[in-house]
Amino acid sequence: MQRRNINLVAGLALCLALAPALGLPPSAHAQKAGPQAATVAAQDARNFVEARARELFSGSQKPDPAVLLALVDTPAIARFTLGREARVIAPADFQRYVKATESYLSAALSAQIGRFAGAKVQVLDALARTPQDAVVRTRITPKGGETVDLRWRVVRRGPEWKVLDLEAAGIWLAIQARAETQALLEQNGGNIDPVITRYEALGRKFAEEQAAARNP
Q1: Angle made by CA atoms 162, 166, 167, in degrees to the nearest 5
Q2: Where do the domains of the chain lie?
Q3: In degrees, to the nearest 5, what angle opens at C-alpha 172 toward C-alphas 166 and 178?
Q4: Mean of the pLDDT values across residues 67-94?
Q5: Domain 2-214 indexed as CATH 3.80.10.10
Q6: What is the DSSP string of 120-173?
Q7: Phi-psi sector, 185: left (phi>0), alpha (psi -120 to 50), beta
Q8: In this predicted model, what pLDDT tens digit does every residue of 128-147 receive, in sequence order?
């Protein structure tokens, strides 16, 4: 249990270090939140994740990544993955990149959650640093499959929560996407078009695989 708590705190520390890039309040503002507000936020985040995880995984059908994608703050992830380029990219190109990021996330989420149909969902713990920012750890146990711990980075956007990142086996999805995006930008002299083309291709491949699965 102590090891799990250390891992959760370490994961939250990493998330907080990335907060400005993800459009979250700076830590100076976060420190104004009292322990009671953080406790309420942790419970709210826990309830949100538990409901969404059961919706995704408890049914007999293969989980649909589109359901999870609808809960994701894709523009924030897109800004984060672009890094410095997010400050200079043209608005029209950014919108194209957001759509391409959705394609990337669809493919990545399909690979992550596709094997969890009919799984048992258990919420292990939740830790909030601010009333708007929390990490929730869940345990997903598929029927006849290997148990997987998923951590959900969630943020409050107005009256509702949004998923900002997912972690399994030590890999955070948004952080992995940022590394891939930055590598592609470096390979292409900062040109965003090859990145968009790459992620659109991933999305098309995912759609074709989904169609083939529905019509074997």
Answers
A1: 155
A2: 2-214
A3: 115
A4: 91
A5: no
A6: EEEEEEEEEEETTEEEEEEEEE-TTS--EEEEEEEEEETTEEEEEEEEETTEEH
A7: alpha
A8: 988 999 999 999 998 877 89
Q: Which region among 51-60, 109-118, 190-199 has the lowest average model confidence (pLDDT)?
A: 109-118
DSSP 78-100: HHHHHGGGGGTS-HHHHHHHHHH
Structure tokens at 184: 């592609």
82-100 tens-digit pLDDT? 999 999 999 999 999 999 9
In the structure, what pLDDT confidence band is assigned to residue 110 with cuts at 50, 70 and 90?
Answer: confident
70-75 contacts: CB < 8 A, separation 24 or more?
A: 71/161, 71/162, 71/163, 72/105, 72/162, 72/163, 72/164, 73/155, 73/157, 73/162, 73/163, 73/164, 74/98, 74/101, 74/102, 74/105
